[in-house]
Amino acid sequence: MKILVINCGSSSLKYQLIDSDTEAVLAKGLCERIGIDGSNIAHQPAGGEKVKEMADMPDHTAAVKLVIEKLTDPKVGVIGSLSEIDAVGHRVVHGGESFSGSVLVDEEVIKGIEACSDLAPLHNPANLIGIRSCQAIMPGVPMAVVFDTAFHQTMPEKAYLYGLPYEYYQKYKIRRYGFHGTSHDFVSKRAAEILGKDRKDLRIIVCHLGNGASVSAVAYGKSVDTSMGLTPLEGLIMGTRSGDMDPAIVSFLAQKEGLDAAQVIDICNKKSGVLGLSGGASSDFRDLVDAAKDGNALAKNALEAYAYRVGKYIGAYTAAMNGVDVIAFTAGVGENNAEVRVLIGQYIGYLGTNIDPEKNKLRGEEVILSDEGAKVVTMVVPTNEELAIARETVRLLNQ
Ligand code: AMP
Fold first, then answer.
1. Could you report the per-residue pLDDT of 321-366, keeping only the tens digit for each?
2. Where residue 249 falls among pLDDT bands split at 50, 70, 90?
3. CB burial class (10 A; 0-12, 13-18, 19+) of residue 396?
4. Does ligand 1 come within 6 angstroms of the Cβ of 211?
5. Could you tell me if 259 and 234 are in contact, meaning their C-beta atoms sit under 8 angstroms apart?
6. Burial class of residue 80 in the structure, from the number of CB atoms within 10 Å of its CB (0-12 exposed, 13-18 middle, 19+ buried)
7. What pLDDT is attached to residue 121?
């Protein structure tokens, strides 16, 4: 089957066309600045050059139309017509407590996603626009939604409740939801497969370290804790996000700087993390590593603080699961950044594991970093959220 995977943001749309039989990516691309001046598309057929061009995209429906045009284009296309697309799989950020797994789209599901919009006001409405646009252009084509939060719905109450008056959970559903669930699920499954074991027999800590970053504790096949919370701001220090901090900082900083709470949260989301800690040097870990090598002390400190936070979470989740068998690194930084993995390695030795400097030189590949016979296996497992969405879509269609 040919599955179109769509990841819709407020002004962007990422896509991949995947052949689910071979799991090959037939084409992929990105529409940017939808509804804004300067909208453009970058499209790449498998084995071909990436073609980038300016294109008028006043809304997401226009973007979906353009994606279909590219996919069926005689030169850069990979299918003859729209009818070759068997199904569409959409990434949806927040499924609240209503969705503990992927589902096929119908009007009830759309209402359910709408109901979760106040928990993810930037993301869910954009995801819904993507679904509606695809429905308009591909009527009758089955669609599935895969939620970032769903995998973490197995967390026990003790892990997801905040120490707030219980009525706020009851009234507003304020709790830990966690994100990157598709990745934590995919990577923990794959880690077990690589080791020739059943995930149900393992306690796995997945460190999804990208621009956004989160850690999860996957005990015997189920997520039992994760570092992101009600929103993706909690937990690790990230590219531009602060992660954990004393909530009193919000009112303190608001008063000192003459801001309101929303403005402070905006700073916590966009100007903090390693970008903020490094004095604005960069949110990109490649730049930070280079800057640290060139003697930039703030960049070095930012990397140290980042790694220390990851190390603390690994310790916490080892306690949460009463032990750990596997630590898996994934996403942009986790897969590629050997220097950051070395820094994190400072905090895992006591568990009976290590990061071998030679094996650590590999990038973006499945590799076991720890020595043979180590008590805990440390490994790199590249994530593939699009493939996971395509697989889920096929699974739902075959049910
Ligand atoms: P993601 O959000 O998963 O795309 O991850 C983005 C982060 O991954 C950026 O901070 C990049 O610096 C980092 N990254 C991506 N590719 C590489 C690479 N080849 N070497 C080092 N870091 C990388």
1. 999 999 999 999 999 999 999 999 999 999 999 999 999 999 999 9
2. very high
3. buried
4. yes
5. no
6. exposed
7. 85
The alpha carbon of 338 and the centre of ligand 1 are apart by a number of angstroms equal to 11
Catalytic residue (choose from 56, 148, 244, 284):
148
Which are the contacts of 322, defined by CB distance < 8 A and separation ≥ 6?
203
For ligand 1, atom 17, which residue shows the shortest CA distance? 336
Find where tokens 């599955």 sit: 3
Overall size of the chain counted in residues: 399
Sort strands 13-19 and 24-32 into parallel, antiparallel or unpaired. Answer: antiparallel
Query: Quick check: 341 and 296 in contact, CB under 8 A?
Result: no
Measured in angstroms, how far is the CA atom of residue 299 from the centroid of ligand 1?
16
Select from 304, 302, 365 the least CA-distant residue to 334: 365
Q: Which residues pair with 330 in a beta bridge?
A: 208
Q: Give the model confidence (pLDDT) of 32-89 as tens digits.
A: 999 999 999 999 999 999 999 999 999 999 999 999 999 999 999 999 999 999 999 9
Residue 302 CA to ligand 1 centre (angstroms): 16
Helical H segments across the chain, by residue range: 60-72, 107-115, 124-137, 157-160, 166-172, 181-194, 248-257, 261-270, 273-277, 285-293, 297-320, 331-336, 338-345, 385-397
Is residue 95 within 8 A of residue 13, CB to CB? The reply is: no
Which tokens go with 343? Answer: 């820094």
Out of 238, 284, 285, 293, mutate this one to test ligand 1's pocket (max ligand atoms within 8 Å of CB): namely 285
Question: In 18-74, where does DSSP find H-type helix?
Answer: 60-72
69 closest CA partner among 57, 336, 159, 22: 57
Band of pLDDT at residue 382, cut at 50, 70 and 90: very high
Percent of residues, the chain, with pLDDT higher than 90: 97
Cβ neighbourhood burial of 2 (10 Å; 0-12, 13-18, 19+): middle
Phi-psi region of 263 (alpha: psi -120 to 50; beta: other; left: phi over 0): alpha
Residue 129 is encoded by which pair of tokens?
């626009």
Tokens linked to 334:
């986790």
Which structural domains are found in the chain, ordered by start?
A: 2-147 (3.30.420.40), 198-380 (3.30.420.40)
Does 9 score more than 90 pLDDT?
A: no
pLDDT mean across residues, the chain: 96
148 is catalytic: yes
